[in-house]
Amino acid sequence: MTIALLREMFSRMVEGKDATLIERYYDPSLQLFTNGQVQDYEAFSRGHRTVYDTPITYRVEYDEQAWVQDDRRRTVAARVWITTARPQEEPTRIEVVLIAEYTADGRIRRIWETTYPGWEDLPAFEDY
Predict the structure, then answer these.
(1) Of the four, 15, 17, 36, 126, which is 20 to 30 A from 85 by CA?
(2) How many CB atoms lie within 10 A of CB 125?
């Protein structure tokens, strides 16, 4: 269940840049731990809405050998690459290693991730 939901979220929300789907895929109690920083649901939602309103594009690739799922704990671990692109800039390929914990109703409640390069170091996300 969770691997399919994570893939669906990346496809529909991230690649589709559809901020209206945030509440579908993320629980209001969300905590995102990324590269030593912590965000709650409101900060996550606000940041994504801001970036999705720009001309940035996303393409997600998966390391098919890296999926780990624990149905009892409703968790999934993955390794993905998210390539971002903006007009007049070279695309940036970001490696993301993550663990996502889901609620019983299938929304992400916690994410622990590390990225390279770090989101916080990229000009495309300076207003995030």
Answers:
(1) 36
(2) 18
